[in-house]
User: Fold these one by one.
Assistant:
Number 1:
Amino acid sequence: MAGNPRELDAAIAVTRFGLGAKAGEIAAASGDPRGWLKAQIRAEGAEAFATGGETAAQRFAEYREFRRERLMARRAGAAKGGDAKGSGEDPVETTRRFIRQDAGQDVLARTRLAATTDAAFRERWALFWANHFTVSAIKAQTATLVGPYENEAVRPHVFGRFADLLGAVETHPAMLLYLDQAQSIGPNSRAAQLAGRRAGPQADGAPPRPAGLNENLAREILELHTVGVDGGYAQADVTEFARALTGLSLARPNEPQAELVVFRQPAHEPGARTVMGKRYAAGGKEQAGAILADLAAAPQTARFVCTKIARHFVADDPPPALVARLEKAWLASGGDLARVAEALVDAPEAWAPQPAKFKTPYEFVVSSYRATGGAPQGPRFGPQVNQALGGLGQRPFGAPSPKGWPDEAAPWAASDALVKRMQFAQGLAAAVGPNVQDPNALAAATLGARLSPAAATAIRRAESRPEAVALLLMTPEFQRR
Amino acid sequence: MTAFSLNRRAFAAGLALPFLARVAEAATPANRKFVVVICRGGMDGLSVAPPVGDPDYRALRGALAMGDEALKLDGTFALHPQLTAIHALARAGQARIAPAVASPDRARSHFEAQDVLETGAGGVYTTSSGWLNRTVGALSAAGKVEAISVGATAPLILRGPAQAGSWSPGRAVDTAARLPTLLQDLYRDDPLLGPALARGLATETLAQETGASGGPQMAGMRAAAAPGREASRSMGEALAGFLKAPGGPQLAAVSVDGFDSHANQAGLLNNRLAALDALVDGLHTGLGPMWKDTVVLAVTEFGRTARVNGTGGTDHGTGSTALVLGGALKPGGIVGDWPTLRQQALFENRDVYPALDLRSLEKGLLADHLGLDRRALDTTVFPDSAAVRPLLGLV
């Protein structure tokens, strides 16, 4: 089927670098596949998806209000000597419902953007970074913040300097809550001393609860966001970095702050810090800032992150030559992510004809919507998208850990997962299949030169349009990119 | 045992006729079941089985220290108040704790530690297959062995050369559609998708067949419908349904997520340990008489700091508690030594000392319960681990 090499390159550009072909997309890319990709790189970053105009700070204020109301309802219930269930509309339940709706609408808006955008390479690039800097909605506090976080801290910076992206995500309220930084206090800080004095011994004689350090954010910045687990740090570096980060926190509801994120000098651990062999003078927030800047510039970070980029776009076990190219572009440009994206497009290793990547569930669902034009439209599709992706093992915004979703085939290609994909394909094909005029033309437009003769034959022999569409979505070449 | 599995065993033995004597000796009784529960996120051993009788416990744990509400095991140890079903098993001699175990990994990274926990290797990122998968391979020399994981993604512990099944709750496959057959044809030469889809469809058939008698399909639907503790119980019942099915798997893996308790640990662990307890309870009641031939091992990638941290939680540590459960267990006290919480006894003045290599425990259970020989354990299942002696005598 493969005619001239540029036709195959166009199919690769749209499916491997992008999010799968929409109608006419492969044809649009076929003039200059590399130029078509590079045209999607832009300084202002990736598009935000609609979150109803609410910021993370507004969402968090709503969450706090919900907590306050729930507490009052419980107290009222206790005072009545029973549970809090009264007649009429329960304000706590109402708020809980709004919170669910907020998160559901974000998922829907993000999926719709991915399913319809003309700049799918840009979108995939943004999705990579959102996963690299995972904030998961599995905590109650972060349940409604992931969408605004991605829009505010990640998407504007994905073609800027890595240092700026790093700074934006690590000081965003969602990250501070997700990795427990908001509560971390220097053990020798004034705030800790005050708290200790105020608390005194507990009623049962146990020692006072120490206000103090939480290592979580420091560890994950080192291990997952910058130098990587082999980056050459030890437990002492984690603890020192955690001390440097103390003070970085959130404003309390009664504090008259313009910004939700604050630096509390009294909670900051006093003294100089040594992280990975370098000494950072005593001070305030500039101490952690200097460490973050050094981590962003570290060659280990370039190596670690470029390996992840290559693994995401090209192969689970990426070609070392490709990683080296990306690293070179990273180091030469001081971590300019637009230059790294261009280097990826220019790398010959990224255009190998054999697709080595097995789609994640989100990629599979989004590319299915793009292929069939079956993008979810109304708000009632929110729960549907959520449920479909949950069943496939990738609940939107619900990564199981700060490491984010896995990028390799092995975890996703479980036997049960293929059955679930088949069922999704059947369901979508039943809905959109009857309106597909020519399934053979759809297959050609979706996979271009990547469509194998065997798959084309199977689709041609299908006994119904829905069966043909389901087959297309389940072909080995559609499952891969 | 059913006629179906008898036939299968007879078939396997017939093929291996010249080695019949050896096969008969090494054969694993097909009704023995082994389940690994992976508690992800670094489960705090001192909360699972608080050493309430240890003189240093209260001072280290501060506000997190438990008192009379903990469920007493012996003079030193108790169980977390949420672990009621497991406590009942312990009183019947069917649950024991290993209070100071750790994998060989010391990096305190979730992802490294889970890699080492699940690959069974001596170091990080040296092996890409899981030790339970290689157990399937080692046991298969003596007859067909099946394994299954419960959950939408395949856990590393069961990934590898042996084809393992997986299952998660969902609606039934439309058996009238031609699509499954057409796809199997299309995947004929695909080494990744071909075997996986065939296995998935077979598991689905098994789920539907056993569904009539309240098997996995029904339990799975209940799990999808009900949140929290009941969902975990239903998952346990669903897994039991597979294990009980004729020709069903002998080995299984299931994960319980969310144990990373850096802050507000008490509430978080109440919830997570209730889920773990309900999962075990569902498995126990679901297996019925087969429970007496079952061993369940609940493990985590690392324990947490012995001291409470500044935010009502604990940070990444080393030694943790493993739970060994099942009707096949011999009754007894704690498994391995208790290094105590004296300051000099803490690992790096921070964590519970890792007194027992987790692989010792795992090797002992595989040897005693499934009859794996020492050579396979030392080389294939746990690579280069001859120096790590199996802890025998628990089964």
Number 2:
Amino acid sequence: MPTDVVMPQMGESIAEGTIVRWLRKVGDEVNRDEPLFEISTDKVDAEIPSPAAGVLTQVKVKEGETVPINSVVAVIGVRDTAAAEEPAPNPLPPSANVASAARVASPQPVKNPPTGPAAVRSGGSAEGGRVRSSPLVRRLAREHGIEVSQVTGSGLAGRVTKKDILAYIEHGPITALPTPVTATTKSPKPAPTFDADHATVAVPMTVMRQKIAEHMVASRRTSAHVHSIFEVDFSRVQRLRQAHNTLYEQSGAKLTLMPFIAKVVIDALRAMPIVNASVDGDQIIYKRDINLGIAVALDGGLVVPVIKNADEKNLLGLSRAIADLASRARAKQLGPAEVQEGTFTITNPGGLGAVFGLPIINQPQVAILGVGSLEKRPVVVNDAIAIRPIAYLTLGFDHRLIDGVVADQFVGHIKRGLEQFEAPIE
Amino acid sequence: MAKTTYLEAIRQGLAEEMASDDRVYAIGEDIGLYGGAFKVTEGLLNRFGAERVIDTPVSETAIIGAAIGSAYLGMRPVAELQFIDFVACCFNILTNFAAKSRYRWGAGVPLVVRGPCGGGVSGGPFHSANPEAHFLHTPGLKIVEPSTAYDAKGLIKAAIRDDDPVLFLEHKLLYRRVQDEVPEEDYVVPLGQAVVRRPGDDVTIVTFGAMTHTALDAANQLAERDVAIEVIDLRTLSPLDYETILQSVAKTNKVIVLHEAQRTGGIGAEIAAAIAERGFEHLDAPPVRLASLDTPVPYSPALEAAFRPSVEQIVAAVEHLVEY
């Protein structure tokens, strides 16, 4: 039976979506969950997977068109009848094709693991569609948008091991397996071209650009923005980073400054709930959960993925979450839920050298932390001039709810937390 | 610094606490004139007198009962059991009375019950017990088992200063076989903190007591084959330091829990379950328990060697996990 492909609802407040690009043509065979088209919405750009396996028989919405959610944008038909009529003496599900060689060698792989490892160490290790792996491997696969079945297993009975998936993440598929979902091609932004007669050229904004414009102006209009700037000494954090980064790298994570900042921001939010709140008319809405947004720059835009319940994560967990969200944000693989319900945002204007920024609040939040560039600067320590790694932290806050004293206590909490960092590292 | 044995370190810690706090006293069978079955308390009678180094009749129940009573009156008793196997005689007053006292009426019992545990010396079924699992199930009771002389001294001092009952297990195999540098100045090793004895990336072994040394021997052998073992010495068995355990599992993704007590219902079961619950998504293989067989401890040296976990068994288990 043909399957309708609809414009998904990417978040509860979203009414419509724009099709940016079709990744498959009419007539193409598609697998279930294979990326079918790219969309752009108010909140997020995303690749939408095919809801079914079959042939793309109809495309109803052209690239660049915007349609309401749940509109049918395409139809997936069944594969042609010749394939359907194929005799099927093999009782195994069709997805087990890849492992057929392994299957011959070990008809009852669970009860009777083969002793000759060569028999099963090729082409994945699917058994009735299930691939032997481990909780760790499945988590890594999920975080990197990889199908475990695409990874060649080298463990017992062809199990996909940590080593296998880390190698896959680093080097990509070793054999000619289907391209992983992560390897999306980026469309380069063409520079505007001028002709001889015109000194200007009009280019339509992307949906993301329009929405950023809308949100930023609305935020300026809504909140009484005030900014407070603190100087923070990162000596201790730098020392801890250097001492522990190797350890983090060994477990596949990277210890940057951001997890440290995130950790102390979370502590400060827990200590001062008024900053983890929003304004609704004449009511203050306090938020139980600390959902930390971290702004990620994209080509021609910006997105703020959110670490939900960030206060439940330790430093390692935070560093993994930050790296994961940032890489998936850049690969346009964030789900709509991952950019919503943020309660506080950190942005990093120092990445390209800005000493500090004066960030605009991400509504309906009431504060935003900007992290300036980290540089060695001369500072006075015990009446002597010392060279210290210093960064300026800016808190942009909404004076409707937060007064200067509260804001400064909040940033003071962060400053102390970073200068005397104490949470467990490993 | 001079090398000090595990046994001597315990004696030093006990003597230092007795010297600095008049409320601390020792009580047990043959601990005075004879100096204790293993000579841990040798010399203390001469130094502190018969009122603070009390020889008792052969009744473990009487020793612990008197100790708890004196704790209620403000003393800080350190009770010795000649072999920790006989702590079973005191099960009721330790678990039902001492461990619950603070919970029931706010009266802490600052009691240390210490004694030699463990096998490997042909002690047989009555003199080789590792009873931690019997007491792990009792909230209100702390359990400690050092593996080095440094920790033995630091932990006995911390246990004596603790305001609640502590079961202090001294592995008899280590008494005179283990020695290391022990500072003269006052220090404690805080209760509830495990330590990484050897860092490594491939497989974590969580263990304690004499098995720490067996694990380190296995790790040395495996290092020659480029397999890096991380050895965690728990030091305190209740409360357990899950943070250290889970951090290590997050790094190595493979874990063996190794102990000398029998396997079924042992502390390894508890730790393995907690790792599965709290570290599931960090696991690249099932947690493995290595422990003694589910039988009484045999007398025969050959049988006892087969009964207790060995370096060979650890190496085989690690090899399986590496290949897994």
Number 3:
Amino acid sequence: MKNFLLICLLLLGFSASAIAQENITVTGIVKDVNGEPLIGVNIIVKDMPGLGTITDIDGTYSLKVAPYKTLVFSYIGFETEEVLVKDQRVINMVLKEAVTQLMEELVVTATGPQEKITVTGAVTNVPVDMLLSNPTTSIVNSLAGVVPGVMAMQTSGRPGSVSEFWIRSISTFGASTAALVLVDGFERDLNEVNVEDIESFSVLKDASATAIYGSKGANGVILINTRRGNEGKINISAKVEGFYNRLTQLPEFVDGYTYASMANEAKITRNQEPLYQPEELEIFRLGLDPDLYPNVDWMDLMLRDGAWSTRTTLNVSGGGRTARYFISGSYQDQQGMYKTDKSLREYNTNANFKKYTYRMNVDADITETTLLKVGVAGSLQKQNDPGVGSTAIWTALMGYNSIMVPQLYSDGRVPSVSDGDDNPDNDQDRFNPWVQATMTGFNESWKNNIQTNVTLEQNLDFLTKGLRFIGRFGYDTNSSNWITRKKNPELWQAKRYRSLEGELIFDRVAPEVKMRQDSNSEGDRREFFEWEIHYNRKIKEHRFGGVAKYNQAAKIQTQRIGSDLKNGISRRNQGIAGRANYNWGLRYFVDFNFGYTGSENFHRDNRFGFFPAVSGAWNITGEPFMKNVKWVNMLKVRYSHGKTGNDNLGDIRFPYLYTIETMLSDGNPTGGYQFGDYNFDRYWGGMRYSSLASTNVSWEIATKKDLGIDYSFFGDKLSGAIDYFQERRDGIYMTRNYLPWMAGLESNPSANVGIVKVEGFDGNFTLKHTVGDVNLTLRGNMTYGKNEIVERDEENTVYWYRMQEGHRVNQAMGLVALGLFKDYEEIRNSPRQTFGGVMPGDIKYKDINGDGIINDDDIVAIGATTRPNLTYGFGASARWKGLNLSVHFQGAGKSTYFIDGSTVYMFSLGDGWGNILKEMAESNRWISSEISGDPATEDPNAVYPRLTYGANGNNNRKSTFWLRDGSYIRLKTLDIGYTLPKTLVNKAHFNEVRIFFIGTNLLTWSGFKLWDPEMGSSHGKNYPLSKSLSLGIAVNL
Amino acid sequence: MQIKLNMKIRYWHTMVLMLMVLCVSCNDDKSEADSQAFDPNKPIVISDFMPKSGGLATRLILYGENFGNDLSKIKVVIGGQIAKVIGVKNQYLHCIVPARAYDGDIEVSILGDDGESIAQAEASEPFVYEKKMLVSTFLGKHAEKEADAVIKDGTFDDCGSFRNMRWLSFDPQNPNHLYAACQTRGTRLIDFDREYVSTFSTNINDVSSVNFLLDGDGDGDMIVSSDHSSDAAIGIFRFTRASGFTSRNDVSTGRGVKATAIHPVNGEMYFTRFRAGDVQRYDFETGVLETIFQNPYAGVHFMLMIHPSGNYGYLVQSERHYIMRTDYNWDTKRFMVPYLVCGAAATSGYADGVGSSARLNWPMQGTFVKNPDYAGQEDEYDFYFTDRSNHAIRKLTPLGRVDTFAGRGNNGTSGYSDGDLRTEARFNEPQSIVYDELRQCFYIGDSRNYLIRKIGYEE
């Protein structure tokens, strides 16, 4: 609230200074074509930045202006009008509603903005307002289900964490599936960009759109351009939002008594001694000894019900005819979920994340034909974590069951569980979670970046009409630093039995460690340079154009480069690219793109590659016979075919160079000769290839085909696009692990051997309709991709189904479970299972190869992949006067994953570590009738098998039994907003004031109940995603 | 305007609603009866308790009414002994059964501010108190390291420490005389009569065992072995009872004699040799020394211990971590080729189990103890032995099952603590053990704690 008041004051100050001019006074009234007065119309004096006014409730205005100036009337959704002031004192204006047609919509492509009708490749323009309602600090988190062709998955809800995303489908098992992200033309981190600063966001999906990026374009490209100033009155907008975040689904664990009883069952059912005597269970139940028989709800103890975060943005834009500016700043503060104990210390150990960003874009017309654009942007991200780090806390939070140790012993000692190891450093992840969160000091990390762009655009019409030159230079620095301040109190664990006198007996788990400090940093610097020459002409019905482009980029690690000289060498790319396009009468389009790019990471013979792509389109609506078909506004068919590359090998530098090292054995030279005389040591060790030169290594090549339709019907009421795509990725880089020993190699060389093919489709639709005063919009989109490994370096096997070849990339593989064994009779009559002893109630597997033995040869592909192969989203929005409401649902399908780990395989560690989910404890599991007294509990179709205390090789392995369907659908956003009536806000000199409520991840539907399905986690021990409720206000002046 | 105003009201209405949603807080409702204070107007009632029987340190739960909620104001007396109260919740109470609560009558009282009893109640039936075996420290002064272990003669209260106790044995004719063979640290005589520890003079450098011949032909003389590395030197000596164990005679040469064994029926002597890796038989009647079989390993520490019936002996393969059995041929009066009973040859480890699935780590001296549960069976004895590097006393049953009898308390390994056999007691490299038939307890040479421990029923 304080922020908001400050901003109001600021805004008032700005507006007050705008009304102190003299000369003649012009008054008038502005109406629409129906004669209704328009409130809040912007009236500015052309070329006089800062001078202007807005109309009041009755549509009237009054403005002092020098004669012979031009007044510009502008209003959102209406066409702008200009009037020259001579001697008239009253200027009444009628504004016409602007009719934007889809045909005129601009699409940002690799070579600049282009009319949508002329685009022949698969490019999706993302409406920026769809990205605004995201409560997290990263835009990526809002991409899934919004952008056709983008699949995304948020795997952690930790403040500051980001989603992974990929375009269309994963089509390689190589080092990188990440798309190329270009911000203002250069490769930059998507998460650095403040959403409010985005002017356009487009996704380039097929080869014709990305060939120009050559060896970097294979995984798709995302182009973001940031906002720039427009000529006109100063425009100030500010937005303040407060979020209340709650975790979507927190794992719920059983209480102490249930845990202890189940542990006993697990022991007894395997003919072992029970872990707890009846009187001990009774003590658990009655809670009579909180030291030795505690019952701690760690989740409740550690986590808040919700956490607050805020986001404030302010931007100012405007300018005159010769120079324009856009300045923005934003601040985000995300608080973590841990409860902290203020009484324990002065500093805050809660996890939090703060991000400050700023951006300044200035465009200056140096001459009539020369435009200079300068942009500077930067961000500072600060993050706090408790001393041991959030990962360790979550591990402990999931591993500490309710009976392990109390929060504090009754004598004030701090409890913790030891792993039996003498080294206290190894114990850290088993420190009591409450200790980890509140008593281990804190880590501070921060990242700062500065990004600079300078662009020079020169119109060369004086040479030949339609010729243009653009030169661009970029310089970025990134650095990240962290300081850890770690400590821990003296930690104790009570022995399970009291002394004969009834006193507790303690073991010291870890000695007290005073606060220690450590710091480190990482950094890099990037330099970019490119120039382009554009040529566009229209001669009668022939329109043609061409682009020639040169680009180079370098990235160098500036800190922590270590002693390896290779780390100090910049990663450089260089390339030329071009485009030629032709169309006839906006009906038939042909487009040719190419990239000839090189990467210095490869051997000189393989350094440069040529990536061509052709595409064509037919605008059916342009045909004369379609002139009378009024309901079709646009119908366009397009096809593209081309190649792009991927030069990302991960961290490997110069695979074409070999490395020779001294042979060592236990740190001493070996394999050499002793040159010394007797009793003198002159031993020289032998040398060997530690890594072999792989001279032929080069980039992955993607051959892509895309067939698409863009459509718009019924006066643009229904519009969208559908694409079918095919891709074949050749030359996927991988280590040749299965060369015969006969080859005599000391290390495994690498080669471009893998092949993956992909096909799929993506599409979207938008339906707009107006009923009375209500504007309704329905949106939907879907992306589906299926990949298949055609070839990869893997061990040959007799059983084809064990190969990864012929399956999806990262296909889940496991045994096929046939339920649980009914009795010993069934075990005797079934194929022998070789994973350890089997009892009734254990999992029965299918003998795939029919050899009478169940072993690893019976592992087959089951289910799909962890990452979804299908992503979809749909939503509706309605607008009625000042009120708007929109809902957006997002879903994912064709995804399966195995669940495992100590939370799923109950008691599997056998040392008391690990917890039992309430959901699992309450589900139907196989219980021996000797324990339950009811033969019905020996259910061969039970959801969980007979319990085991300790490892169970037979049950606890990947099989269909533990395979879960990861598909889900969730109410991703609910957005309710109210724009205050103009009559009200104009009195306070505001242009627009909007108050809104946004809810994200409010509801989830999924067959999987144990934890949030979107995380794709196999064990559910990650920081869960959050659902957030936010209230905000946006003002525009 | 009216409509707009309405809308505003509605807007604030929704805002308030939303805020209410945001501020949902949950109140745990704790059951009130649990934590009620003692009510002096009502009587204390003990309605039930569990378990009904047990030894000392049993966790006892009492059910009833009006116990109050103040730990400092409640006193529980069981069998006349004060029991430590761990937790109380008005209707439940948890306490620890004290030692020597033989009578088992349970009495709960609430104390006033000055510690006087203001209300009390007694359980209608007594708790059945069972005596329990415990590990205790019998004799000697604990030392952290060998240099601190001072050896001296003296009364039981002041007899210093014990070092290298390899062998413990009672004089079969005087149950008040216990001998401890301590290698180079001398042979000690523990006299229960005088409660005095003295050094028994042998003039032998390295005493590895002390045994006694049969009363008949052997006159109950003492046999002392010496563990030296000379083929020619005498390894076995005989001290005559008639001389009060002062007159020493040579019996036989022997190199690396780890222990002797006297056949309990026929009286001949057997001993094991380290370097040669064989078992020797000496016949006192004929004076003949012969090798009866070869051990599977030579150059290792191993010992023979004979069953009281004389039917068989255990060949404890200390350095190879397993135990073999050799059966006695009554016709030839010789032991026969041994076979495995428990453990795995040359594989050390710790595991209870049957036969070859059990794991041992340096088993040392053992002793046969009659188990009343086996009455009428062919073999009525369990074999208790020290498992040195597992810091435990193990038990081998006639059927070949190995259990841990005592030690490794609280899932630990070595250490020095007394108490419950399995949950508390810890040893540090115990290597000798003897059973005292008279006092019905075990004495254990706890070599790295430098003292003698006792396992017996609480007194």
